[in-house]
Amino acid sequence: MINDKNLTTEQVTDWWETEIVDIAPGMIRIRGYEIQDLIGNVSFPSMIWLVLRGELPSEAQSHLFGAVLVAGVDHGPQAPVIAIARMAITCGIGINGAMASAINVLGDVHGGAGQQCMELLADIRARADKGAAFDEAVASGMAAFREEHGRFMPGFGHRFHTVDPRAVRLSALIREAQRQGVVSGRILAIAEAVQDSISKGKSERVAMNIDGITATVLLELGFPPEMGRGIFILSRSVGACAHAYEQSLKGERIKGPTPPAAGFRYKGVPPRKFKAPQ
Ligand SMILES: CC(C)(COP(=O)(O)OP(=O)(O)OC[C@H]1O[C@@H](n2cnc3c(N)ncnc32)[C@H](O)[C@@H]1OP(=O)(O)O)[C@@H](O)C(=O)NCCC(=O)NCCS
């Protein structure tokens, strides 16, 4: 037990230990690089990679990582995350509050499914690594996921798109990167096998959605599943910021999810006479 009054300098400086950044008057170093050497010389995706992973990516890795960040930026005002940013700003909070409110709904079902999808795909890869045949690894990984989380595989299905153009384009970029030897393409093969499996017997193929393709790219590039949601948030925050700002310019106050005249359906107890409890 340390007596607070007798802390040594080491005990104080060791309280927050970090390998990410070092600062002193007139000096900022990120992962060992002087900030002025990074500024103007690395792209924002490369900078994110450096901060998160500790090393700079190659040009090709940065290109693919940047593509996934571009893909997730916005999905229109009916996406709950964007609707919430817009509604929140009409409530009189600042843009930081509007963005934070929006980001808070990126859960396992909406926008945040990428992390769960990374866990699913990584689990299938691990099963194959342990010697299971590819089809068996896919089937047993999906069965294990279903047992724990229910029948919906994260990263697949979409309320709006039967084919998600972001997934189509990013799949093509993964294949290009695979031809260049930048990624193995193994995770894309697993993701497509999951998609095949859940599409069996359906009139239309179940789409791979933005969370699914983001998960695929991030795992191909070696990111751990725990970073999946945070990285998606970096991308979608841009959309939340833009929508909150645009909405703020309109000067509307307390804007709800639908025009008030549209009303909503009440399905509770019919009107009844109040009797004071005895
Ligand atoms: C996004 C989502 C809520 C849309 O659900 P939905 O509107 O019910 O999807 P659809 O009506 O288009 O589904 C068509 C069929 O595919 C199935 N299906 C859709 N998504 C599926 C998934 N992820 N896993 C397994 N089956 C799925 C549905 O059960 C349905 O089958 P049925 O007709 O036999 O009942 C759902 O796909 C989902 O929860 N996906 C996982 C979470 C996720 O990735 N979220 C991010 C979305 S961008």
Main traits of this protein?
Cytochrome p450-Terp, domain 2; mainly alpha; 278 residues
Q: Which helices and strands, and how do they pair?
A:
Layout lengths: L8 H5 L7 E4 L2 E4 L2 E2 H4 L5 H10 L5 H13 L8 H10 L5 H9 L9 H17 L4 H16 L15 H15 L6 H14 L10 H11 L7 H22 L29
Antiparallel strand pairs: 1-2, 2-3
Helix pairs in contact: 3-4, 4-9, 4-11, 4-12, 5-6, 5-12, 6-12, 7-8, 7-10, 7-11, 8-10, 9-11, 10-11
The structure holds coenzyme A.
Coenzyme A binds next to helix 11.
What does this entry look like structurally?
This protein has 278 residues and is mostly helical. Among the domains are: 20-57, no CATH class; 113-230, Cytochrome P450-Terp, domain 2 (Cytochrome p450-Terp, domain 2, Orthogonal Bundle). It is built from twelve helices and three strands, in the order αβββααααααααααα. A three-stranded antiparallel β-sheet has the order 1-2-3. Strand 2 and strand 3 form a beta hairpin. Helix 4 crosses helix 12. The radius of gyration is 23 Å and the shape is globular. The structure holds coenzyme A. Coenzyme A binds at residues 109-110, 113, 151-159, 198, 202, 206, 209-211.
